[in-house]
Design a protein that fits this description.
This protein has twelve helices and nine strands. It is α/β, with parallel strands linked by helices and 287 residues long. Helix 1 packs across helix 5 and helix 11 runs antiparallel to helix 12.
Length: 287
Amino acid sequence: MRSVQSVERPTTHGAQSPPNGDANPSEIQSRTVLGMRIDATSYRETAEAIASLAEAGIGGSVCVATVHMVMEAFDDPAFRAIVNAADRVTPDGVPLVWALRRLGIADAQRVYGPTLLPVVCALAAERGLAVGFYGGSPEVLEEMTRRLLQRTPGLEIAFVSSPPFRPLTSTEEEKVTAEIRASGTRILFVGLGCPKQERWIDRQRASLSCVMVGVGAAFDFQAGAKPQAAGWIQRSGLEWLFRLATEPRRLWHRYLYHNPRFLFFVGREWVADRQRRRRRSDRRRQP
């Protein structure tokens, strides 16, 4: 059984100090849930870390973690290694925020992909960092970029591409990589869905010096192509139920298969951890 761990995250190279009340990069804590790392970060800290990596030109990757991602990582050690190697793994799903709090990080907060995207774009505009978008349909990309440019003065969008739903050939993928590199993109948002986007990012890390951020369905939400759950639904941890109701054919397997397994395995892990702590306590009390 994979044990619960506490991990101190290293400072991101060149990261600037965030405003008061926000997480400091040198103090980012992490926990593992079913073997997958999750960072107790914030919107500001994550955006600052992304911008700092982009300015340094050393590449990097960011995952926005959900229950679905945790279970994909639980089932596939190779995928788990990809996620755990990312520069940031944010708690996108509310159950993961609850898990972080249960594991000792009382002030853990959600860092939701659709909200993170415009936050990073605003900081990119301030810093003069060109952004790019890979994934989604042409119509979604057109509307999303129109909205972003309208509300983010100074934002430079250097690359936009809607790939086909089929797997790309090696020649096609090399062409996309070359186009991204030539565009001057410093921050690339990838909206291919989990686990496809994380695997795509992992394949590109050796070839691209931009920071790649996997944001799932954020393109659709930013474009208004899909409805978002009301705030109270999100805060209650029931966003999955809202999304299942709006896209039952596409999402039924994700939620009805993964969510019960997540509850079972996490519950089993926490019970085992409590039993271990109780045994240690009993041994300390023995004369």
